[in-house]
Amino acid sequence: MASTGTSSQSTKLEASTFQRLHPRAYFERFLAEGIRTDGREALGWRGVNVNVGSISTADGSALVRLGDTTIVCGVKAEIAQPNLERPDEGFIVPNIDLPAICSPKFKPGAPGEEAQVISDRINEILLSSGVIPLSSLCIHPKKAAWVLYIDATCINYDGNVIDATLIAVMAALKNTRIPVPTFDEEAGTTICSRVNKVSLTITRTPLSASFAVFDGTHLLADPSAFEEPLIETSVTVVVDEHGELASVTQVGVGSLAGGSQSMSECIKAAKQRRRQLGELVGEIS
Amino acid sequence: MAVVPRNPHNLRPLSISWGEISRADGSARFAFGTTQAIASVSGPIEVRQMVELPSRATLEVLVRPLSGVPGTTEKSLGKRLRDILEHALLLSHHPRTLIQLVAQSLSPSPSLPSPSPSSSSSSSSPSLPSSSHHSLAAALINASSLALLHAASIPMRATLCAVTVGKQKLTTTATNTHPGADSHSVLVLDPEGEVEERGCFAFLFGAAVGGGGGGGALEGEVVWADWSGAFNEDEYLQAVELARLGAKKVLRFIKTEMALKNGFMQDDIDCDNGMDLS
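YS: structure for the whole thing
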């Protein structure tokens, strides 16, 4: 007959073992009680923490924590020759890295699939929302234009990297100060002021809200790393600071048991989330 | 000057060609007008131990552009296609095997602005309309679906059909920048040329799909939506319904072509004896 101390210890051990061995059943037990494994409600969001300007060698930077998911983003501006087909446009080159440090599911080496998918999504969002008009990056048509290298690295992975990364990217862009350029016609080079700096022309601040559907019945906001492998549908809604939709993406069956479509609820919740983020975080309002 | 509005429900001429890749278990080519893609399926075949799964088949989807190396766009498309197909295919019927799907674009991808001085993208596409990537994605999805049907080696819950939806501006005066108050533009299916592409939608047609039992077979369940540009929720819902009509047309075309391939006569098909692809 075990003493009380030992039996409560073995009960604790059993719960975490159960989680590892039967994650789906573990998750279902929580959802049956109306909460998720971290205590959140179905449409509850994790807290956001944004810190800008900490990387002095970058032209703009931000560190974002969404729950435990942590993203560091730096923006560097360089000068390049514009494309022949687009002589008065600059370039925006986002790149997201998910290195081995952030999670045991990533191995060292070339960027894995998830990193490439997120890089592509961020690129699509930035281009289709028209966040920074490429013409505003032109220094001298056909000769010189700014290239904004946006590098984001995940240093702790707890799911929903896309939302956290977009917050980091937008905060870093807003924090970016680039030198005032002057194009010297005779020499054919660009001279940058050491003293005068300007901010970027940012026309919109779109931020994403991601959701997941579990078992065709539960619509969950902001999935964590534990929940992500268990869900079969994911929805991402991008909303800007005016509450206007910039893009939606859905992969998987959208309808929930009971006939409603998850997309309508997601759009509503995404707008609320965007408002909330704008109030919480001045750096990205 | 007003632009002549085109019929919003028209698709470009569709074409399907089966089995061009003779060594694969299944292959098919699909085209919306000039936007073409071809896909091949091999499987169930031997799987390498690293990706072997004990309870179901491993599904690998590779998307390749017409020219150049597969980049992040192709990787992203491949992953999403895999996520949907993993639910549409009954992979548990073939554990410890591999289903390899390769989808190849036969139309040029839109050139992405790239800062490198000798970038291949700036030299490969002479004077093509930009942003045709949704059309290409839809063609790749349809080609993949057809290749799986052609192979008939993996049981499928449903047939996947995709279409693109765009927005045609009805006046050539200054664009209406406020979203939603759009009396100056209309949603159209399968946009090409001057009409702006806005998104790609794919539907699964099958009795076993969707929450409301049985509805999936006729009406289709939206499993892929990729919509961007300034819009409000109503416009999005309208786009989904328009896409659904388009996807049903694609499905009808697939059924007809499949019946013809299997030796049915055109008259029998026209009676629409409901060849059940669910």
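YS: worth flagging: The two ends of chain A are 60 Å apart (CA to CA).
IM: good catch. Also The helical segments of chain A are 4-21, 23-32, 113-129, 161-175, 262-280.
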